[in-house]
């Protein structure tokens, strides 16, 4: 044993110095030192710890070439009055150089080491350290995303506090619900551009589901009203999907192959690099799956009768996804960026052999930024979103005796969105930032329902919607302790809707114009580097959906009735929170929130004989309120724990009108909002091996049509757990062979999402093999 001890100890000391002595390629321009160290982290994998106030007013020299981590840090910190020390093989502590005779104990306590602040952009449309943002903001970074086995990008949000993802239909159409405000009441952004259609009835695929999760650098989640910057449908908050930038190296290529037990199989590759003034990042992926099955005993809404025989066949799907970014530096002051993502998908819902779904979805944006000076810059962006899809329905959902499942209706969706934005950032003095901009959007949406057996067009809706917005925001920073943000946005809309309903044969038109102004203010105060409090107040709005105004499907089984008198929803939102760090590595954040929503729109569901009658109606008042608690604990330099808990009450807060049947009565919880939601995980990360054991819990929720939170309308609570691990084998400088394996839904929990008889994925084992060179 003694003979083995000395080589083992020597090996441990050697491992701690391998990264410090290995030459790495770095390219970091002169900039604020904190930002330079963050780029150093990203390019080398070395984690930097530092005293939060030690970077103030310091600028780094330019650094480009191949250096060891020690050489690079020596250059970056030259003349800064800072020193560094490797605490292990991949972590460096940076602190002030103390004068001889200083009280080391007192100064060490004063300069307690903290992780470099994450830089976020969504909450203010300007780059800010997350600890200085007045809104409640969270970031899901590239490493977290890479450690998940996802079906689509919505999966990366299932563990986020305050956020609920539910899937409707056996093809898995996802909805986003932040702070209980309801689906389609939170904005989805792609690279900062509003990506949803103003005709929110376009529902074949959520925007989040059309972006390749392996092409995502990070997802920023801002909870709380955001209409002051982003306009419509930002009542609950915003989710901004930010795709990957090109690496600084000349070229980095990563092919991969994946297989799971459904089975699903496929692969793809990414390649990117920087060549002088040109940069590129390109990704391609193709996956095929035989899908999965639901319960063999389908259920209907309570009170319905009848039996259904169904195929018991697995569903299946194919996805081809493309994405990337191209960048060109026109000059030292001007940059041009082009970003795109595209998905071609075909699906067959499980147990429903006659429900094929096909779609092509794309998002394209071109951004130009010019820095007139360090204090003033202008950014202009043009983006286009395309959504072309068809979905065939069978009569599985209709509560009547059915002996043969046949396709009944095919829904065609063709939606195009063109958006343009110009914004300017001006810093008239130190600590003062003024942001102002103009945003315009034009939507063209076409929806057609065709009876499959006869070819008769039963429902057609065309909608053209224009939205113009002007916004202004002022940010104030005082002594690195007080941060204030105030602003507002003025929006005006033009709706032009033309619908034809074959049964009865009617043409329904709606021309609507409305205007709205939405202010917002926020404040954060930092008592010290470890404790801060923040609060915000803001307003939001959501316009009625065109399909709710003019109605739609009218068949022997279901009728969607119009409601031309629908009013836009409006909201007043408040939140108050605290963040603090402890000396033993615990970070905690707690936030309370309250949303007061007027004229809340919800679809009522009533019965007329064998027909289901649907109609959107305004509820007089809805209140959503609750609390979010987030904890992370760094146990060792490799082990960490996280947990979060969200308590959400979302209830009708005023008596309903006599015509609002089938809706939750006063004091009862809204559909599809779990009162309790939690996530938890144990994470391990080292230079060679990383892994995670994590899970999520959701309490029971109620389906649409419920009026008094009856048990017969309740979907049960559930706990789902996942586990995976990755081994990285080095095969050269920054070259690795990666093997990932894991199991999703370890306990094979059958859990319902939005409708009775609809279940999410069973237990799935997977293997992924990747290479980087």
Give a written overview of the molecule.
The protein starts with a helix and ends with a strand. It contains seven helices and 40 strands. It is mainly β and 773 residues long. The strands form seven sheets. It has a 22-stranded antiparallel beta barrel. A five-stranded mixed sheet has the order 9-14-15-12-13. It has a four-stranded mixed sheet with strand order 4-5-2-6. It folds into two domains: 2-115, Phage tail protein beta-alpha-beta fold; 241-772, Maltoporin, Chain A. Helix content is 8%, strand content 55%. The chain is globular and about 80 Å long. Residues 1-20, 99-114 and 397-403 have low confidence and may be disordered. GO terms for molecular function: siderophore uptake transmembrane transporter activity.
């Amino acid at each position: 044993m003694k003979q083995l001890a000395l080589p083992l100890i020597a090996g441990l000391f050697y491992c701690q110095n391998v990264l410090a002595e290995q030459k790495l390629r770095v390219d970091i321009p002169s900039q604020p030192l904190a930002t330079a160290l963050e780029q150093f982290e990203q390019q080398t994998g070395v984690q930097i710890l530092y005293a939060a106030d030690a970077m103030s007013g310091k600028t780094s020299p330019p650094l480009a070439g191949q250096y060891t981590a020690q050489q690079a840090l020596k250059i970056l910190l030259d003349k800064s009055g800072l020193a560094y020390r490797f605490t292990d093989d991949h972590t460096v502590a940076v602190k002030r150089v103390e004068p001889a005779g200083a009280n080391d104990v007192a100064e060490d306590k004063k300069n307690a080491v903290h992780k470099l602040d994450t830089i976020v952009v969504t909450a203010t449309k300007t780059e800010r350290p997350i600890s200085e943002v007045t809104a409640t903001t969270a970031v899901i970074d590239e490493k977290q995303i890479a450690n998940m086995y996802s079906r689509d990008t919505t999966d990366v949000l299932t563990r986020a506090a305050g956020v609920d993802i539910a899937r409707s239909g056996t093809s898995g159409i996802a909805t986003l619900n932040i702070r209980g405000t309801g689906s389609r009441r939170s904005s989805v952004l792609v690279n900062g551009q509003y990506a949803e259609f103003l005709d929110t009835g376009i529902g074949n695929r959520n925007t989040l589901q059309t972006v390749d999760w392996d092409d995502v650098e990070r997802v920023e989640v801002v909870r709380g009203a955001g209409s002051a910057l982003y306009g419509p449908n930002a009542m609950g908050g915003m989710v901004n999907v930010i795709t990957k930038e090109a690496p600084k190296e000349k070229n980095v290529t990563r092919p991969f192959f994946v297989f799971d037990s459904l089975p699903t199989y496929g692969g793809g590759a990414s390649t990117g690099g920087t060549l002088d003034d040109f940069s590129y990042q390109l990704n391609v992926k193709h996956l095929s799956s035989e899908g999965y099955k639901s319960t063999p005993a389908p259920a209907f809404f309570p009170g319905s009768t009848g039996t259904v025989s169904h195929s018991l066949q697995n569903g299946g799907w194919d996805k081809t996804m493309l994405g990337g970014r191209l960048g060109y530096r026109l000059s030292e002051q001007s940059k041009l960026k082009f970003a795109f993502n595209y998905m071609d998908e075909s699906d067959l819902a499980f147990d429903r052999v006659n429900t094929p779904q096909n779609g092509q979805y794309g998002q394209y944006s071109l951004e130009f930024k010019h820095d007139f000076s360090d204090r003033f810059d202008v950014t202009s962006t043009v983006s286009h979103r395309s959504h072309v899809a068809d979905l065939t329905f069978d009569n599985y959902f209709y509560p009547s005796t059915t002996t043969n499942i046949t396709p009944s209706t095919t829904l065609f969706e063709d939606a195009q969105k063109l958006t343009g934005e110009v914004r300017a950032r001006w810093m008239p003095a130190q600590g003062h930032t003024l942001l102002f901009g103009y945003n315009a959007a034009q939507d063209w949406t076409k929806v057609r329902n065709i009876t499959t057996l006869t070819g008769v067009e039963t429902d057609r809706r065309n909608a053209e919607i224009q939205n113009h917005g002007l916004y202004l925001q002022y940010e104030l920073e005082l002594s690195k302790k007080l941060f204030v943000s105030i602003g507002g946005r003025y929006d005006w809309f033009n709706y032009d809707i033309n619908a034809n309903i074959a049964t009865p044969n009617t043409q329904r038109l709606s021309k609507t114009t409305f205007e709205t102004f939405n202010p917002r203010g926020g404040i954060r105060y930092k008592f010290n580097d470890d404790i801060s409090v923040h609060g915000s107040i803001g307003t939001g709005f959501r316009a009625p959906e065109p399909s709710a105004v003019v109605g739609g499907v009218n068949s022997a089984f279901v009728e969607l009735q119009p409601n031309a008198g629908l009013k836009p929803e409006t909201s007043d939102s408040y939140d108050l929170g605290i963040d603090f760090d402890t000396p033993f590595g615990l970070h905690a954040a707690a936030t309370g929130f309250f949303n007061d929503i007027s004229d809340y729109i919800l679809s009522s569901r009533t019965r007329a004989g064998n027909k289901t009658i649907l109609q959107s109606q305004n509820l007089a008042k809805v209140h959503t309120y609750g609390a979010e608690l987030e904890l992370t604990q760094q146990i060792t330099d490799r082990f960490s724990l996280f947990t979060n808990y969200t308590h959400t009450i979302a209830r009708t807060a005023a008596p309903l009108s006599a015509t609002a049947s089938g809706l939750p009565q006063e004091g009862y919880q809204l559909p599809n909002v779990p009162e309790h939601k939690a996530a938890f995980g144990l994470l391990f990360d080292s230079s060679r091996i990383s892994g995670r054991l994590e899970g999520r819990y959701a309490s029971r929720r109620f389906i649409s049509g419920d009026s008094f939170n009856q048990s017969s309308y309740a979907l049960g609570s559930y706990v789902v757990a996942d586990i995976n691990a990755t081994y990285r084998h080095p095969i050269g400088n920054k070259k690795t062979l990666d093997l990932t394996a894991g199991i999703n839904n370890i306990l094979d929990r059958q859990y319902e999402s939005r409708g009775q008889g609809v279940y999410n994925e069973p237990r799935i084992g997977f293997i992924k093999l990747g290479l980087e060179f």
